[in-house]
Every structure is written in structure tokens, then in C-alpha cells.
Specification:
Length: about 280
């Protein structure tokens, strides 16, 4: 009891609330009141997960013939794709419907990750790439700790979309590290391909450099009378007057009349109201 209690993390389905929870928590608290166990709580963290429902939203049942055997999914798509699909279907604590489209999306993502291993560049990351890498680490660290697995996968998909065809080796290494809990088979294989002798699972989790979590530049949309007319890349800390000057030059052919109002949202958009 002194060695193992309290448990760090207890996770179970909602059906446990009126079953195993009675034993794991309330009986334990009674035993604590009797002085028979150390500490008032049996675990530090308690979470619940939803159910994977059939594609039509009904509960999976052999009698209904709507089950999706995981062994079948593993056989045709691989264990990593099956694992990621279950986590990507929706929030961890809510029910989610099985989706073949989601499975295909996860397969496509994993194939893209593998393809990048043959298109890596060496050298130092530029400012935008440093932001992308550190932003990914920060998002993955926060979201995994908070059981936000579906948005964790979304963050990795957004990350690779920022690279067209090739990826710096340093960035790819970080991607493999944060993807490893979701796709251990592929990432271990790719890790070995990079030349590492030790398994990735034993590699320390990366730590984000907070000083690199602010972009040097930002792309803002430019509108005239509410209609999108262009974009401008400006310094993140550029003041309104500097942004207005740049934006006017880009959309000057659309400004027919006088600018009666300028609506500026820092880092996002600027709209010229013309009459």
C-alpha cells in the first residue's frame, strides 16, 4: 500500500461509476476512516472515456450485426491506423460513431509521415520552422496531459501540412517523438531509419522553447467593404499604421472612393470601409 498508493491515474467507462467505483473509491474511503489504509484517496486522477458506437449511432451489438472487430481493422489498415482512428473520432470522454472515412484519413496521414523520411533536409531551422516545431511540442504536451487525443492528432496533421514535400530532419525527429504514443510501430521504424540504435520509447519527451512560440511574421487578410481582396505578410509586432500602409498598396485598385473607416484586428485582418 505504501509503495503503490495512491494510483496515479484511474480511467474507466461511465458504467464503472455505479460498479467498480464503489470498490475503488468509496469503500477505500471507508477503510481510510477505519485507519486501515494510508491516505484519503485511492488515486490522484480519475477520467472516463466514451463508447465507440456503430456508424449509425447505435450501440455496437452482435445481435444487430453492427460490430467493427478491431482485429479486422488491424488486418486491413494496421494497428497504428486503428489506434489513431479510435482516438481521433471525438473527445475522449464522449461517445463517438465509428467512421471508415476517419480510418482512411489516419491511414493517409501515416503514409505521409513515412514518405517524409525519404525527403529530409539537414541544416538549421528558420524562424517559422522553429515556431512550428515548438508550437507542436507545446500543443502535444498540453493536450496529451489533458486527454485531448483527437485535437493532438489534428495538431500533427496541421504540422505536416505546413511542409511541402520535404521536411528538416530536426523537425521530423520531433514529429516522430510526439507521434510515438499514437503510432508506436511506424515511429519506431522511422526512428531506426534515422540511424538511432536505441528505441524511441526511451527517448525523453521534448520540451518547448517558449521564446520560440511567437512568430516573427504573420499573414493577415485584407478586405474592402467586407470582401476579401488580398493578404499581407507583416511583422508580428507591426503597429496599425504600418499594416494600413502595406494593406493599402496591395488592394489599392479595389479602393474606389474614400476610406471612411478602417477595421483592424491585430494579427488577423484589416477591412477598409469605402464610400
Amino acid at each position: 500500500m505504501k509503495k503503490w498508493m495512491p494510483v496515479d491515474h484511474y480511467n474507466g467507462g461511465n458504467e464503472h461509476n455505479t460498479r467498480h467505483l464503489l470498490y475503488s473509491r468509496f469503500w477505500y474511503k471507508a477503510l481510510y476512516d477505519l485507519g486501515l489504509v494510508p491516505g484519503p484517496e485511492p488515486y490522484k486522477k480519475r477520467t472516463t472515456q466514451g463508447l465507440i458506437m456503430a456508424a449509425d449511432g447505435r450501440k455496437m451489438s452482435k445481435s444487430l450485426g453492427n460490430t467493427v472487430p478491431s482485429a479486422d481493422v488491424v488486418e486491413r489498415a494496421g494497428a497504428d491506423a486503428c489506434r489513431m482512428t479510435v482516438l481521433f473520432l471525438g473527445p475522449w470522454n464522449q461517445n463517438a460513431n465509428w467512421s471508415e472515412d476517419t480510418l482512411r484519413g489516419c491511414e493517409k496521414f501515416l503514409k505521409r509521415v513515412e514518405s517524409f523520411s525519404d525527403n529530409l533536409t539537414d541544416g538549421k531551422l528558420d524562424a517559422d520552422q522553429e515556431f512550428l516545431v515548438n508550437d507542436l511540442i507545446a500543443k502535444m504536451t498540453h493536450r496529451i496531459e489533458n486527454m485531448q487525443f483527437n485535437t493532438s492528432i489534428a495538431a500533427m496533421m496541421e504540422f505536416i501540412n505546413a511542409f511541402t514535400g520535404v521536411m528538416p530532419r530536426t523537425a521530423y525527429k520531433i514529429l516522430l517523438q510526439v507521434l510515438n504514443p499514437f503510432a508506436p510501430h511506424l515511429t519506431e521504424e522511422m526512428w531506426e531509419k534515422l540511424g538511432h540504435a536505441d528505441m524511441l520509447v526511451f527517448e525523453p519527451w521534448p520540451i518547448a522553447d517558449e521564446s520560440k512560440l511567437v512568430r516573427a511574421t504573420v499573414t493577415i487578410g485584407i478586405s474592402v467593404n467586407g470582401k476579401h481582396r488580398g493578404e499581407a505578410v507583416v511583422q508580428t509586432d507591426a503597429d496599425e499604421s504600418a499594416v494600413v500602409a502595406v494593406a493599402k498598396l496591395i488592394v489599392e485598385k479595389f479602393i474606389i472612393g474614400d476610406i471612411v473607416k478602417t477595421i483592424f484586428v491585430p494579427g488577423k485582418m484589416i477591412n477598409f470601409v469605402v464610400k
